[in-house]
Structures are given as C-alpha cells and as structure tokens.
Amino acid sequence: MTFIMRSRPDTDDYLSIFLNDSPLLDVRAPVEFERGSFPGAVNAPLMNDDERHEVGICYKEKGQDAAIELGHKLVSGDIRQQRIAAWQRFVADHPEGYLFCFRGGLRSRLTQQWIQEAGLDYPLIKGGYKALRRFLIDQLEECIEQS
C-alpha cells in the first residue's frame, strides 16, 4: 500500500483544528480516551491499558529511561505492526488530520516516528489533549465573560 502525502507541520492552531473539524487520532490508552476526548476523535492507542499501567509503575519505580525501554519491549513485533497498520489506515482515510497524546510528548512523537518510518508524514498537535482542552475551556470562559 503506497500513500503520497504532502508534509504538514505540527500545529498549535487549535481554533483551526476545531473550526475545520479536523480528524483527530488519539493515541492515548483506552482508559484515557473513555475519560474524555473530542467529537469525532478516533482512539488507536500506542499502548493498551495494561501496557500503560505497567509502564507507569516502571516509571515511578525506575525512572523514565527504564519505562521507555519497557514500553518498547511491550509494544514490539506483531503488536507494533498491528498498531502501525491501524495508524496507516487512519492516515489514508484522513490525510488532513492530526494525532495527539496527553501532552504532545513521548507517545505522540513515537507514534509520529513509527508512522514516518512506515513511509508517511503525519503531524501532531503541540501540547496534545491537555492543550486542546485548555483552549476550549478558555474559549468558553471568554464567551461567558462577553455575554
């Protein structure tokens, strides 16, 4: 399967994302997605809930480097390939979309890297879910103040 995409930069233009109803690929764990995401966002996680839980414990006990190493071990081989295939399908179906994780950090950058290694460029949302949510709350507060 070959895709031709023009490269688009990562973005922090949250207003355009929402006004244009941009497709959103949420790579957070399912438990995070269930707690809240955005209309039309699709959850295709880097790690499932159990993997995320194990990595979180490792992070607390052994630090970031050990947690990253464990994450790579848990999401490898066939599991990694299945997740990349799911992201490739999303990218093919939604070339004008963006991906995000919680803060636009490790998970989204790793997902972006793996997608790129599979031959596709796909931008991420700077600041992730947290920044998008903060933007919407600020906009709501601004509207309330103006009314």
Description:
With 147 residues, this protein is mainly α. Helices cover 58% and strands 5% of the residues. The protein has helices at residues 14-19, 30-35, 49-62, 64-74, 77-93, 106-117, 128-146; strands at 24-26, 42-43, 98-100. The protein has a 3-stranded parallel β-sheet with strand order 2-1-3, with helices on one face. α3 (49-62) runs antiparallel to α4 (64-74). The longest helix is centred in the C-terminal third of the chain and has 19 residues, at 128-146. The model has no long low-confidence stretch (mean pLDDT 93).
DSSP strand tally: 3
The radius of gyration computed from the alpha-carbon positions, rounded to a whole number of angstroms, is 16 Å
What is the element string, with H for helices and E for strands?
Answer: HEHEHHHEHH
Mean pLDDT across residues: 93
Helical residue percent band: 55-70%
Strand order of the largest sheet: 2-1-3
Helical/strand content category = mainly alpha
Large-scale geometry: globular
| Helical stretch tally | 7
Distance between the termini: 52 Å
Low-confidence stretches: none
For the biggest sheet, the summary is:
3 strands, parallel
Task: Tell me the fraction of residues in β-strands, as a range.
Answer: 5-15%
